[in-house]
Design brief:
Helix Hairpins, 9 helices, Restrct_endonuc_typeI_TRD_sf, 3 domains, single chain, five-stranded mixed β-sheet, alpha+beta, Adenine-n6-DNA-methyltransferase TaqI, Chain A, domain 2, four-stranded mixed β-sheet, Type I restriction modification DNA specificity domain-containing protein
């Protein structure tokens, strides 16, 4: 940091803001900014509720003005941060926000960028309290130390960051679109095959081509305690890859688990829209919230079954049948009623080779675009670090 920079508590460079009770003006119509109104990807207020004072929720208390910055104090590390636009001047936001209104000596966008620095975010993570709804107080935020130069220098730094971040946002949007396109290409090919009705194909229920033969076992017993355990969290959505695998002993498991082997396909019945399906190359235990499906070798290959469970038509069917409050689940009776047209085993093998090749290429492209996204995030962090250490 340069010698001519000042260092103050954030609260010392802010103006006081106002709170009101809209219910005292029951006919007054206003725009209400709830905590969910701010996007932590665009960092803008994306939607508001138009309500009367008589219908105002108890958290609708804080008055905002154009160019104020609002910072969500609930789960602060999620970075729900936005600058209030002109059309929301003198409207109301939730008490779940800290309203930041800088004094004339501070550029509001300079503070806006400060809120994204690694140090500030790390401090919010340390200071947040509460298990279900971790939050920081307004006082916690006011106590943070902000370094700042002259107003002229702030304008210069903000102009550089605005230009750089706009370029990064464009590059990030392009990378994210390319990532979506890569996934869509694979999913489209998969769907085209599984909605086809080729010559000689036969319509079958899922219950006619596979079954659940596994039994629940006690993972504490000697025969099972050192087997690898697979839960829904150990399977990557749409990819079929395993992550963070541990043994029953390492996880300290006590409730019953299904045995599975290398001939089966694992399908998570919880939240089927997550598309958690896997082909294990090891024997182990899986959660009771997972179906270890044994393909009938004369009807379907294991690999074809794996891809069938990842296709859009099956997922749509599973999602439709899992609509329930709380935790969406697919019961086995409904699962086994799913119908699909199947080619013979020889053609299943050929299709599977196509699927696996395209899947591998798709994952390679996803890896490239994901690395680009990570590099762009790292660039943002580096620029912010340079900006607030006086090196930009």
């Amino acid at each position: 940091m340069k010698a001519d920079w000042q260092v103050k508590k954030l609260g010392d460079v802010l103006q006081k803001t106002e709170t009101i009770n809209p219910s005292q003006s029951p006919e007054w119509m206003f725009n209400y900014i709830d905590v969910s109104s701010v996007s932590n990807s665009t960092f803008q207020i994306e939607e508001t509720q138009r309500i009367k004072g008589s219908a105002a929720p108890s958290r609708a208390r804080k008055v905002v003005k154009e160019n104020d910055i609002i910072f969500a104090t609930i789960r602060p590390t999620l970075q729900r941060i936005a600058i209030v636009p002109e059309h929301l001047d003198k409207q109301i936001c939730s008490t779940g926000y800290f309203v930041i209104r800088p004094k004339p000596e501070i550029n509001n966008r300079f503070i806006f960028y400060f809120l994204f620095t690694e140090k500030f975010t790390k401090n919010m993570g340390i200071l947040q309290k509460g298990a279900s709804y971790p939050a920081v107080t307004d006082g916690d935020i006011k106590a943070q130390i902000i370094p700042f130069p002259s107003l002229h220098e702030q304008h210069r730094i903000v102009a550089i960051l605005d230009q750089a971040f706009a370029g990064i946002a464009t590059a990030k949007a392009n990378a994210e679109q390319n990532l979506k396109n890569a996934r869509a290409l694979f999913e489209s090919h998969l769907q085209s095959v599984f909605t086809e009705r080729g010559e000689g194909w036969v319509e079958k229920k899922l219950g006619d081509i596979c079954s659940i033969t596994s039994r629940l076992v006690d993972p504490r017993k000697d025969n099972f305690i050192d087997l690898i355990h697979v839960g829904a969290g150990n399977i990557e959505s749409k990819k079929g890859c395993f992550v963070d695998l541990k043994t029953a002993r390492e996880e300290g498991l006590i409730s019953g688990k299904f045995l599975f082997d290398k001939s089966m396909v694992l399908y998570s019945k919880i939240r089927p829209y997550l598309m958690k399906v896997a082909r294990p190359d090891f024997n182990g235990l899986c959660s009771a919230d997972m179906y270890p499906l044994m393909p009938f070798p004369n009807e379907i290959t294991r690999d074809y079954l794996f891809h069938l469970l990842l296709c859009k038509s099956f997922t749509d069917y599973a999602v439709q049948g899992s609509a329930r409050a709380g935790m969406p689940k697919v019961n086995r009776e409904y699962l086994f009623e799913y119908r699909s047209w199947l080619p013979d085993l020889k053609n299943q093998v050929q299709f599977t080779l196509q699927f696996d090749t395209l899947h591998k290429e798709t994952q390679h492209l996803e890896s490239i675009y994901q690395r680009k996204l990570t590099a762009l995030d790292d660039l943002k962090k580096s620029l912010l670090n340079q900006a607030f250490s006086g090196n930009l």
